[in-house]
Amino acid sequence: MAKNRQPIAKRCKALGISPAAMGYYKKNTTRNSNSQVRKKKSEYATQLQEKQKVKFVYGVLEKQFRGYYENAVRMPGKAGDNLLIQLESRLDNVVFRLGYAATRREARQLVNHGHFTVNGKKVSIPSYQVKPGMVIALKESSRSIERFKINVENNAYHVIPKWLDFDKDNLVGKVVAAPTREDIDLPVEEHLIVELYSK
Fold this sequence. Notes:
alpha+beta; about 40% helix
């Protein structure tokens, strides 16, 4: 399975996003802080950067990202909004949003290892699309793992989106509605991604 092994802080700086958007609140880099930055970018470079930003934040590689885009175009509504809503509805992202994991990368690994159930059935596919009414719970055999207790306690300040509901005592989350574009706090201009793929 392909993995993205890019250094977090360095890549965030290159894409112009805060490491906090990835769940890394203590990471930073001072590498090449005085370097000359080319101020003017071409239209293509701006569009490409927006695409790379979204791929990096959600941990998706090009082939899968292209598939999300093609689905988004076929769906009713704006293609850019549909693209982000699909990415936000991934199981690994929902696990991160509920506070089970400190970062999306950690959430992806936890889902891969089969620690979660969706509507009572074990799901180990990070890209699994959740829908309103689905219940995401920590597997009974995983509840004694200290890592989950630490993550939930450390993420007490973590703001859970309004389209999700989380029972901290029972470690059970529920998708109460489909996410909307307004629910996604990622600073991205998704119309540039649509323009890039439309060429």
